[in-house]
Specification:
35% helix; Nucleotidyltransferase, domain 5; 12-stranded mixed sheet; Carbamoyltransferase; Alpha-Beta Plaits; ligase activity; DHBP synthase; metal-binding; alpha/beta; 7-stranded mixed sheet; zinc-finger
């Protein structure tokens, strides 16, 4: 008779792990107990069994949504006269554990929802240990019902029986409920200025009909409200674009299933797996038809997610549509709405009805977004189903000190390094408005509370005017903490190094703009990195950022400047408003605009030259169109010259001159776009080859917002691999500025290890 104490760490709460352990113990006639703790799941097993047998069974039979990262066990003294194995009350503490992420409706619950003979028939809040809200309802750890926003809903006798029956799928499922004892649906009509009453399914039937009639409905989901309407109705889609003031920005679709996605998009094996997974992110699929061009503004991708709640699935079924639009319900500069009073107050004129429930959303969580490249899911917005992001540090990455990293200014996230793990928050938005700043501050406090973090260092961006930098400095003074400033593009590369467990590499960070160590605006940077030693070895030759910050939203200013400098006659003939733009050129010669090396701005310029637009109504609008028009079969590229005087420099003017010559020859713009993409990829390859010769390195890391361009990323990776490089890019942490906080953590770790 042996007794073992096991501690299981990883994603082991909110995924049916304790019922699984209970069933295992019963199967092998073991006694003991299992319980949640603040650091995972603790179990003691006693019986005629070895620790190896226990470990093997658990590893090979895990619940499908569990992620077991570490097992600690040791033999202890047997307990005399113990008769059974039981699940005991959780320890009430806040240590470090994996917060379970929100899960889309599972197939078992979906089957029960539509089964007239089942007691959960048409239960619009149906869930079990395999699905339902998690992260968005947690108020404290450990993950027990009394620590969630479900605590206000007292069990009926049937739900109580399910919850406390170990072999039931809803045993200890904290979000489980039914129409008798659970949350309620409510429907408000802006037209009638009152609530419309009815049972849940009656309200869903009403809403479904109104969607077919061309109305827009705000629907409360797991992490916030969506605006839902019929994508087949071009009039209502146009109205949604106008009311949300999101000209040209693609709208997300929710689909009945993967088979309907395949009718309109190319779908590979990994995309199908991710789409069908419980995480249910928005996946950017490559279109194969021209359907829904009015929804995605003629771009080459469609953002589609699976119907992750019973409500969305039922409305899709009732309307008979393959797809519905389901875009975040927010106004410009304001985070996604999560409260029904806010929805009723702020969405009048944008939608016609508000469908909501009375289960509180504890923390806002947008839909996650990403795309697949080289069999990797590249996450561009961490949210529902993925947040909080976690990574266990390897032994070589570990330091004892804890770190708080506050990220950048756009696509902000917060990162914590606690003991042997790094945790990154959900997407917190661009910190340009009071509303997003308030959201950021509340999310920061929330994460520090949940993880009970006592940190030694604060890491932040090198840019002193960022809100995140100022708050880091305030905290450092107030709490007497040490602060580490991390340059923006260095943090980009370190985020990719962190998730791929690298200490040394050739790193490329291409993005829009970020303050450089020399006071100029960077954005096309190549580095040689050895642990904490970073050497900048490549960038585009500096050019004036004509128009300053205005050039980001109005890149026609910068495009005209380059065109005028290259070929005055072409510029005046090609641009209709040349009188206004000529003034800009004159101003550029009189004013000292900041010097810039950004590749992101050059994508803007080429896009303007190829008639992809003159203004960015949202970030990277013109580059997205530029990517969409590219002929993917074209393999040509433009010539470029590398200057080796100091760092490796490339003068972009020479490339733009060739592009203008192609335009003058009336070369098809799809070919010009493709050649430009190929050129950027080839620049990376040729620079990397020279750096390999000089520094004996063959590992390359790609990061930064420009590499959200799937065509560019695929070409660059393929060309580098063909030349024998080992290539890495962000997948777990966002490749855009959402990964900055993780990079700040890892740079600080390397600094501490090597100072």
């Amino acid at each position: 008779m042996k007794r073992y104490r096991f501690i299981f760490k990883g994603l082991v709460q909110g995924v049916g792990f304790r019922p699984f352990i209970y069933s295992f113990a019963k199967k092998y006639e073991l006694t003991g107990f299992v319980k949640n703790t603040g650091e995972g799941v603790l179990a003691e097993f006693q019986g005629d069994i070895t620790s190896e047998q226990i470990t093997h069974y658990i590893i090979t039979n895990l619940p499908k949504n569990a992620i077991l990262e570490k097992i600690e066990f040791y033999e202890i003294e047997p307990v005399v006269d113990e008769k059974e194995f039981c699940i005991v009350e959780s320890q009430k503490n806040r240590i470090s554990t994996v917060l379970p992420y929100d899960l889309g409706m599972c197939e078992n619950c979906k089957r029960e929802f539509y089964d007239k003979s089942h007691r959960h028939y048409h239960n619009v809040f149906i869930s079990c240990t395999d699905c339902g809200p998690r992260y968005t309802i947690i108020e404290a750890l450990p993950y027990d019902r009394e620590n969630t926003s479900m605590k206000q809903f007292k069990f009926c006798s049937d739900c109580e029986r399910e919850y406390f029956t170990p072999d039931n799928r809803r045993f200890n499922a904290q979000s489980t409920t039914c129409p008798v004892c659970g949350p309620r649906l409510f429907l408000f009509s802006f037209g009638e200025k009152k609530h419309i009453h009815g049972e849940a399914i009656e309200l869903l039937d009403f809403v479904s009909q109104k969607i077919l009639e061309g109305y827009i409905v705000a629907i409360k989901g797991i992490g916030g409200f969506h605006l839902v309407c019929d994508p087949y109705n071009e009039t209502v889609v146009k109205r949604l674009f106008e009311s949300k003031r999101r000209e040209g920005k693609p709208l997300a679709l929710v689909a009945r299933g993967i088979e309907v996605v395949k009718k309109y998009c190319h779908v590979n094996k990994m995309e199908e797996e991710i789409f069908s997974s419980p995480r249910c992110p928005i996946i950017l699929f490559e279109k194969k038809t021209e359907h829904f061009s009015h929804v995605n503004s003629n771009l080459h991708t469609l953002g589609i997610m699976r119907a992750y709640t019973p409500i969305l699935d039922y409305i899709l079924s009732k309307t008979g549509r393959d797809f519905l639009i389901a875009t975040s319900a927010n106004l410009s500069g304001i985070p996604m709405i999560i409260d029904e009073s806010d929805a009723i107050q702020k969405l009048e004129g944008i939608c016609d009805y508000v469908l909501y429930h009375n289960r509180k959303i504890v923390r806002r969580c947008d839909d996650s977004v990403g795309f697949v490249v080289k069999d990797k899911f590249v996450l561009t917005r961490p949210g529902r189903g993925f947040a909080p992001l976690r990574l266990n540090l390897s032994l070589s990455q570990f330091v004892e000190k804890n770190i708080l990293a506050l990220g950048g200014h756009e696509k902000a996230t917060v990162a914590l390094k606690k003991e042997d793990e790094v945790i990154v928050s959900q997407y917190l938005g661009d910190l340009d408005t009071k509303e997003y700043i308030d959201f950021y501050k509340s999310a920061l406090s929330d994460l520090l509370f949940l993880y009970n973090l006592e940190y030694d260092y604060i890491a932040c961006d090198f840019h002193k005017n960022y809100f995140t930098t100022s708050i880091a400095e305030d905290i450092a003074i107030k709490d007497n903490k040490r602060i580490v400033y991390v340059q923006h593009h260095i943090a980009h590369v370190f985020s990719g190094m962190l998730e791929n467990d690298l200490e040394s590499c050739i790193g490329f960070a291409f993005d829009g703009t970020g303050l450089g160590l020399d006071g100029n605006i960077w954005g096309s940077e190549g580095f040689i990195i050895n642990k904490s030693d970073v050497k900048r070895v490549f960038h585009l030759k500096y050019y004036p950022l004509v128009g300053g910050e205005k050039s980001i939203k109005e890149p026609v200013r910068l495009a005209y400047y380059f065109a005028y400098e290259i070929d005055k006659n072409f510029a005046e003939e090609y641009f209709a408003n040349s009188v206004f733009l000529s003034k800009i050129v004159k101003a550029a010669r009189l004013l000292s605009y900041p010097l810039c090396s950004s590749f992101g701005r050059i994508f803007d310029v080429v896009g303007v030259l190829l008639r992809c637009g003159e203004k960015n109504s949202f970030e990277a609008q013109i580059p997205m169109v530029l990517e969409s028009i590219a002929d993917k079969t074209e393999e040509g590229f433009y010539d470029f010259v590398m200057n080796f005087e100091h760092e490796i420099e490339i003068d972009i003017v020479y490339i733009l001159q060739q592009i203008i010559n192609d335009i003058k020859r009336k070369t098809d713009r799809s070919l010009i776009s493709a050649k430009f993409h190929n050129t950027v990829a080839k620049i990376v390859v040729e620079v990397a080859k020279r750096l390999r010769e000089n520094y004996n390195k063959d590992v390359v890391v790609l990061s930064g917002g420009v590499f959200q361009n799937r065509l560019l990323l695929e070409k660059t990776v393929s060309m580098l691999e063909k030349e024998g490089f080992k290539v890495y890019f962000n997948s777990l942490f966002p490749i855009n500025d959402g990964g900055i906080s993780a990079g700040q953590v890892y740079y600080t770790i390397q600094l501490l290890k090597n100072c």
